[in-house]
Amino acid sequence: MRRVVILGGGVGGAVAAMELSRRLKTDTEVVLLDKEGRHYFPPSYPWLVMGWRRPEQVWRPLSRLKAPHVSLRQEEAISIDPDERRVTTDAGEVSYDHLLISLGAQLDPSAIEGFAGVAHNPYDLEGAMGLARAVRAFRGGKVAIGVSRLPFKCPAAPYEIAFLLDYYFREKGIRDQVEMEFFTPEPAPLPAAGPAIGDRAMALMEEREIPIRVKREMDHVDPEAGVVHFKAEGQMAYDLLIAVPPHTTCEAVRRSKLTKEGPWIPVDRHTMRSSYDDIYAVGDVTSIPTPSGHVPLLPKAGVFAHGQAKVAARNIAADLAGGPEVRWDGYGLCFMEIGYGKGGMVRGNFYGEGPPSIRMRKPSRIWHWGKVLTERRWLRKLFR
Ligand SMILES: Cc1cc2nc3c(=O)[nH]c(=O)nc-3n(C[C@H](O)[C@H](O)[C@H](O)COP(=O)(O)OP(=O)(O)OC[C@H]3O[C@@H](n4cnc5c(N)ncnc54)[C@H](O)[C@@H]3O)c2cc1C
Q1: Which protein residue's CA is at the shortest distance from atom 16 of ligand 1?
Q2: What is the distance between the alpha carbons of residues 107 and 122, in angstroms, rounded to a whole number?
């Protein structure tokens, strides 16, 4: 009996498990291993902050995944030995013939002095709920919101949260008592989508009186003084601090032989194969140089993890059962809520050469509903 092991049951892992369950015959066992046994839908976290979703609406147990021939193990991967084809977990060991790694990015607030327990982190369920409570209790003052360090997943999400908070404070009638300021280490908003889309995001921020400080990488937070200090220059005072924490990968990935120059796994950008023929990696755990080079690396986003997971799963099925190799094309689509029941939509080929061929559709009610439907369809399509 051959065995394919999938590490991580987030976007990439869940999609790969469904694809392999459909494609592989009964002579191959497929194991899906995830430390939490739950699948989360992070695009809904900004709605959680606004009080428009309850926590139980944005996750599903992996035991309800529509992948009938896949066995689920709720275990934490501790180490990966690519030479011995073995994963060690907190409950034992599992060997594999093919491995698909979709362990995502790990948030690391402890990497910045003064961050943990002070800055609100909207990037996980617990943090988003904590922020929702803080926003509800906020009566006025300075909101500093932004991104601590690069890289980070979903480049649109911090801007989306800023737009929604501006909307919330206006609806509540306290916007004139709230000063908002945005910081980011990026050279401009959404750099991977090109300068035209960056300018449009900048204009949306200006319309809402949210100044942006670019090229500001967080150095440390001084909670006593209520000030964020940046590496190169400057500082920003806050009464309410909201920041995307630094990202890294879990120890199993960091200590494996699969990484190179940092905690991420380099893969072939079309096949998703790593430096080992029998190991594929998809989603946030990877580092993928872009051909155009106007941003060095492909951004981290669920839409990419989804497309890459289908391709990696098909290539594993082809390795095992024969068939042509398939290639991922770099296409992506992303919604960005702006409040007032409206959203924008960005889409295009992130592997395009030359000037970015990515377009942003004008914010309207259509794209807000596009995101609502995507959430519903995602959870219904994947889970019983
Ligand atoms: C607020 C927010 C909004 C977002 N909005 C969008 C959006 O609108 N569009 C979009 O495309 N993307 C969006 N994203 C990004 C998207 O959620 C991620 O890019 C996507 O989830 C990446 O998928 P993945 O499979 O690589 O990792 P994940 O989905 O993070 O899955 C990783 C899995 O690995 C498991 N795991 C981790 N370590 C271990 C271990 N050692 N052992 C076992 N299991 C482990 C975790 O439990 C998790 O289930 C958003 C993200 C956030 C935070």
Answers
A1: 302
A2: 11
- What letters, b where the CB count within 10 A reaches 16 and e where it falls short, cover 75-107? bebeebebeebebbbeeeebebbbbbbbbbbbb
Is residue 282 very low, low, confident or very high in pLDDT (cuts 50, 70, 90)?
very high
Distance 302 CA to ligand 1 centre (A): 7
State if residue 147 touches ligand 1 by the CB under 6 angstroms criterion: no
Do 124 and 202 lie in one domain? The reply is yes
Q: Relative to the CA of 12, which ligand 1 atom is closest?
A: 25
What is the CATH number for 119?
Answer: 3.50.50.60
Q: How far is Cα of residue 39 from the mean position of the Cα atoms in its chain?
A: 13
Our answer on whether the CB atom of 367 is closer than 6 Å to any ligand 1 atom is no
Pocket test for ligand 1, best of 5, 6, 7, 11 (most atoms within 8 A of CB): 11
Nearest protein Cα to ligand 1, atom 38: 103
**What local confidence, expressed as pLDDT, does residue 226 receive?**
98
Centre of ligand 1 from the C-alpha of residue 356, in Å: 25
Indicate whether 343 belongs to any domain: no
Residues 141 and 79 in one domain: no
Residue 340 included in any domain: no
Query: Which residues touch 322 (CB under 8 Å, ≥6 apart)?
Result: none
Q: How far is the CA of 170 from the centre of ligand 1 (A)?
A: 31
* Spatial contact of 120 and 146, defined as CB atoms under 8 Å apart: no
Specify the pTM: 0.97
Whether 357 maps to a domain, the answer reads no
Q: How far apart are CA 380 and CA 373, in angstroms?
A: 10
Does ligand 1 have an atom closer than 6 angstroms to the CB of 43? yes
Mean pLDDT estimate for the chain = 96
Q: Band of the pLDDT at 355, cuts 50, 70, 90? A: low
Q: Please give the residue range of the domain that contains residue 180.
A: 110-246
**Cβ distance 282 to 312 under 8 Å?**
yes
Query: Do 242 and 114 fall into the same domain?
Result: yes
Chain mean position to CA 129:
18
Count of structural domains within the chain? 2
What pLDDT is attached to residue 253?
Answer: 98
